[in-house]
Design a protein that fits this description.
This protein has 112 residues and is of the alpha+beta class. It contains five helices and four strands.
Length: 112
């Protein structure tokens, strides 16, 4: 998963290294681009198109989703291994994106 703005060698290397680590070929990597970022909101259609064309134009497979949170991505992409960069990892472990049952994430974050 990523914003791919722009898609670069670091994304490609991370995908290839992760695939090798789990014994899969590099062409098994599926990059994911989310229509709406959890922090920044929805991307304009033309911007999404540009990013998607960039990823696919470099010969990669791409999944475009509306899954802004990783809990949603995990539900959507069962049996997938996820590889993320450091900035995304920090968001995954940030409590503000999670809430106890019966409370909104925004309210839970405000109370922390």
């Amino acid at each position: 998963p990523g914003s791919f703005n722009p898609m670069h060698e670091g994304h490609e290397r991370l995908g290839a290294d992760a695939a090798a680590l789990v014994g899969r070929p590099a062409d098994a990597v599926l990059f994911e681009l989310c229509v709406s970022n959890a922090d920044k909101g929805a991307q304009p259609l033309e911007e999404l198109r540009r990013r998607a064309e960039d990823v696919v134009g470099r010969g990669h497979r791409l999944l475009i989703t509306r899954a802004a949170l990783y809990v949603e991505k995990a539900s959507l992409c069962r049996d997938c291994d996820f590889v993320v960069g450091y900035d995304t990892y920090r968001r995954i472990v940030d409590p503000k994106y999670y809430a106890p049952p019966g409370r909104s994430a925004a309210r839970a974050s405000e109370e922390e």
